[in-house]
Structures are given as C-alpha cells and as structure tokens.
Automatic annotation (TrEMBL), chain A:
Localization in the cell: Mitochondrion
A family per Pfam: Ribosomal_L14
InterPro entries in UniProt: Ribosomal_uL14, Ribosomal_uL14_sf
GO molecular function, one term: structural constituent of ribosome
Name of protein: Large ribosomal subunit protein uL14m
From TrEMBL, chain B:
Species of the source: Dinothrombium tinctorium
GO cellular component, one term: mitochondrial large ribosomal subunit
Keywords associated with the record: Mitochondrion, Ribonucleoprotein, Ribosomal protein, Transit peptide
Metal-binding in keyword set: no
InterPro entries: Ribosomal_bL19 (IPR001857), Ribosomal_bL19_sf (IPR038657), Translation_prot_SH3-like_sf (IPR008991)
Name recorded for this polypeptide: Large ribosomal subunit protein bL19m
GO molecular function terms noted in the UniProt entry: structural constituent of ribosome
Keyword match Transport: no
Family, similarity comment: Belongs to the bacterial ribosomal protein bL19 family.
Gene3D superfamilies: 2.30.30.790
Length: 117, 320
C-alpha cells in the first residue's frame, strides 16, 4: 500500500536512481495514477527524486499478497522518463511474473529485467 | 480472576522471588492486587532476573498435557504434526462437521493426483507451479518454509529466500490444482512454529541457492531438529520482536533495545492466559474427536502410498 510520501527503493541501474539511493535520499511518492490513490503492484506513480519529478512503476511490495504472488522485503520501483521508457538498462532484483499480464505497457520494462519469481 | 488462582499465583511467585535473592517489602502482609501490579511491572522489564515468561495474544498457547492416558496411538498422534490441515479450524465458530468431512474428501482426492510430501516449518522446499505468465509456463521457487497455516482446502505455506540481495516470500495454497510438484530439499524442524523473524534477521539465515541439491533423509530415522539461533539486524524492526522475545526460542539475545520499547509492549500481554482453561479448550480439538479423523486419514493415505509404489515399480520395469 503506497500512499503519498511513501519512500521507495530504486532497483534499476539508472545514474539518477543510484545516486539518490547512495545519498540516502530515496524517492518519495507524490501521486499514484489510479482511482484509489493508493499504489499496488504494477501501478504507475509520480515520485520526487533529487528535486525532480519522475514517473515510476512499482515492481515489488512489502504488503501481504495473494497466494502465488511474491512479497518483497522492500517497496521497489523502476524509474521512467517522460516518454514512458525505463531510464536504466537493467533491473537488479527479481520482479514478479505477474507483471507480464500488463503487456504491452510493461514490455520495455520486462525486456530489461534479469530475473523473475 | 478466580481468587484461588490469584493466591496460588502470588505464593508461587513469592517463593521464586525469595529464591532469586530479591527483596519484596510489603509492610502489612501480602496485598494481592498490589503484589500482582508490582509483579507485572517487574516482569515487563524482561531482564535475566525477571524473564518475561507470559505468552502473548499473537502466539498460540502451548498445549497442556492431559493427566489421562492418551486415546491416540503414537503413530496417529504423529500425523497431527505431519498433516495439521486435516484438523478442523482453530476457531470454534468456523467448525462444521459436514463441511470439514467434504473438504477432507477433496483433499485426499487431490493427494491421489499430486504427491504432497510431509514437511515441517523450517524445512527447505522447492515448489513448481504452472503459471500462465511465466516463461515456459512453469515457475519454480526454492526457499525455507517460514509458516504453515490454514485448515482444510485453505491450507497454505510460505517459502522465503533471498534472490540478488532482495528478500522474497511466496505463499502457496497447498491444494491448488496449479501446483505441479513439491520437493523436499532438506527435511528438518526448527525451534519455533513460525519463522517470521527471519525478515528482520541477518540475510545469511534466509539465503539458499536456487539450484540446491536435495539432502537425503535416511529412512526410519527421526526428523532432525536444527537448534540454530539467528542474529537480528540492529534495533528498529518491522515487528516488535522484543515483546514476543521470551516465546521465540530461535533468536539470540536482543541487543540495544531501549527500555521504553518494553514499556510500550504492555498492551500486547494477556497476563492470565495460562489460567484461561476455556481459551485452551476452544483452541484445541479433543483427542476423542481427533481419533475418528486420523483413523480415516491414515487408512486413505496408506492406500494412496501403496498405489504410488506400484506405479513407480511399473515405470521402473518399463524403463528397463
């Protein structure tokens, strides 16, 4: 459950994300693009990161999930640029298989993933 | 609280206190209320001298042994630990004899289709599931079983592992038809019934390689108990383990926990739980009721095992 002001962990290899995580200033959610305004697995969110606004996709949640859906130890996100393509070239942690359901929107994100669980 | 129980409690604890070289100064005899208050406050400190020995709401109370001779044979009472999902619900309002019977039939039917091995919390399992979204439509996950809950067809277990430095947990419904195979990689028990504390323990305790080879359990030997005690990460945790600490045996001493954390955990304690006979009666199912279930289940599982044995032999002969 990601509300406004929730901190996320950037799990791609984009320079912006890496730098923000190293400085100990992980991005904050300021808007969730769904009706509830509460983010779940696979939702698009708007985050503030190092003074910029960026869109991101939630690829892992700490929240208890349904059976057969993985639950992670941190709330993970992948940063997107303005045209909706991922900023980095690789995702460094496993992402759930369930995200394949959201193709073709997610197809570029799935292409840069290294592992699925 | 029953005054007799209260008095016994006071006298018992007083004896303990005097033995443990602490001073109890009550000027005019023992004031029960005052003593219990003092006792409770002291216990909350959870020091070595005053260990916090009460169970909490979150933990299931330990099963008390009855004075009577057991109705169940040792063989049948072992099934209770191997297949806990065959018992009716812990909540008495959810028990229904016909529903439970029908569910049990369905479970046994499913067991004829897929081999669901017996395992415990703390065992290492690998589960293969057919998943429409996975590459090749099959996904396999290996991890340590950290909990096993639910009765009947709702029975489930959770596997935990660390992949690329990220903790991953997956809950599996045991009787879901999408499950293809459950392999027991290492059969063992741990000191606790639930290992949720691995989330806040150091990552090395929940890491197992995905291509781990199965460890062969010699037949006829008892299931080994792994007396491993885990080290926790530094203090702020996702759950208040310090409140549950005395009941969790698989953790080494907690360090750097501030005193106010114990004080805050005051409401988590249901102090007189160990005297609550009705609570225990409601939570447990009497042996007389269990006997009927286990006799039936034992018979059916034996038949399934025999059929499987014959099939295996036939396959072996065909391959030769």
């Amino acid at each position: 459950m990601l509300r406004n002001q929730t901190r996320l962990r950037v799990v791609d290899n984009s320079a912006l994300g890496k730098q923000a995580m190293l400085e100990g200033k992980p991005p904050k959610v300021i808007r969730v693009y769904n009706k509830l305004d509460v983010g779940f697995l696979g939702d698009k969110v708007l985050v503030t990161i190092k003074g910029q606004m960026k869109k991101a996709v939630v690829v892992g949640c700490v929240q208890r999930q349904k059976a057969f859906v993985p639950r992670f130890d941190s709330n993970n996100c992948v940063l997107l640029d303005d045209s909706g393509n991922p900023l980095g070239t690789r995702i460094l942690v496993p992402i759930p298989n369930l995200l394949r359901k959201l193709r073709p929107e997610m197809s570029k994100l799935i292409a840069i993933a290294t592992k699925f669980v | 609280m029953n005054p007799i129980f209260a008095f016994r409690n006071v006298s018992e604890t007083l004896c303990k206190r005097q033995l443990s070289t602490t001073k109890v100064n009550f000027k005019h005899g023992v004031n029960v209320k005052k003593f219990l208050k003092w006792d409770r406050e002291k216990r909350r400190l959870n020091t070595d001298e005053f260990p916090d020995e009460y169970t909490t709401r979150n933990c299931r109370s330990p099963r008390k042994s009855s004075f009577k001779q057991s109705v169940l044979t040792p063989q049948l009472s072992e099934l209770r630990l191997l297949y806990p999902e065959f018992l009716p619900s812990n909540f008495p309002e959810r028990r229904h004899k016909i529903k439970d019977l029908l569910e049990r039939e369905d479970m046994l039917k499913r067991r004829t289709q897929v081999d669901l091995p017996s395992f415990y919390v703390g065992s290492i399992l690998a589960v293969t599931v057919s998943d429409p979204y996975a590459a090749g439509k099959v996904s396999r996950f290996l991890g340590i079983c950290i909990s096993r809950e639910g009765q009947g067809l709702r029975a489930n277990f959770t596997l935990r592992n660390i992949i690329d430095g990220e903790g991953v947990e997956i809950r599996y419904d045991m009787y879901n038809p999408t499950i293809r195979e459950v392999e027991v990689i290492k059969l063992e028990k741990r000191l606790d019934d639930e290992l949720y504390y691995l989330r806040d323990a150091l990552p090395e305790y929940s890491y197992f390689p995905q291509d781990m080879l199965p460890v062969v359990q010699p037949p006829g030997e008892p299931v080994p108990l792994n007396p491993l005690k885990v080290k926790m990460k530094p203090y702020p945790w996702t759950k208040r383990w310090e409140a549950l600490y005395p009941n969790i045996k698989g953790i080494v001493n907690l360090e750097n926990v501030p005193q106010h954390a114990y004080r805050r955990s005051r409401n988590a304690h249901y102090v007189n739980e160990r005297f609550d006979l009705m609570k225990e009666y409601r939570e447990h199912i009497t042996e007389e009721d269990q006997l009927e279930i286990w006799e039936n289940v034992h018979e059916r599982l034996d038949k399934i095992a025999q059929i499987r044995k014959v099939e295996r032999r036939r396959k072996f002969l065909q391959s030769n």
